[in-house]
Sequence to fold (181 residues):
Amino acid sequence: MRLRSRSIAVPLLALLIGAAGAWLARAASSPAAIEARPPNPVAGQTVLLRETSPDAPDAAPVPGAWWDFVDAIAGRQLGDILRTDPARMSKLMRRWARDPNMWKRRAAILCQLGFKRETDLTLLYDCIEPNLGDKEFFIRKAIGWALRQHAWTDPREVKRYVKANRDRLSGLSVREALKNI
Fold:
C-alpha cells in the first residue's frame, strides 16, 4: 500500500518506530519546525528532527541522530513526500547529498529505497556521487544498501554502475550492492 497523504503516513510511521513514535508524529505534522530529543533505545543516543517537507529546506535529521531514526524517516516519510512532489524534493535531496551533516547525506541516498521501477536513477546517482569518497561507515553502507535495493529491480544496471565506479566505491558499498545478485 502506497501512502499518498502525510496525514496517513506520519501516524503509521509513528507506530513503526516505537517509543519515539508519538514525538515523531508531532514533529512531522507540525507546521513549524520542532526541536526535540527523544531517547534512542538502540544506541543510547538522541535524535533531532525538524519537519521534513520541501518548504522547510533546513529541516532534517541533524547531529545526535542515529541510523534507526534516520532510516525510518528517509525510507518512508521522505520517500512519500518525494513521490508527492518530485521536482522540489529532488532538488532538496541533491542539496542534502552535499551537506556537511552525515545524516542528511544518508537520508538523501536512502530516500528511494522502496521505489523499485519508479527509482529515479539520475537522482540516486546524484546523491551517491558526492559521497563516493566518504570514509564514514554509515554513508558507505547507505550507498551499498540503496544500490542493493535497486538491484532487486534492475540487477544489470547495478552491476554496470558498480563496474564503472569500482575504483571509487568502498569495498563495503560494493559488497552490499552486489550481495543478492
In short: Residues 6-178 form a domain with the Leucine-rich Repeat Variant fold (CATH 1.25.10.90). The first helix runs from residue 6 to 16. Strands lie at 48-49, 61-62.
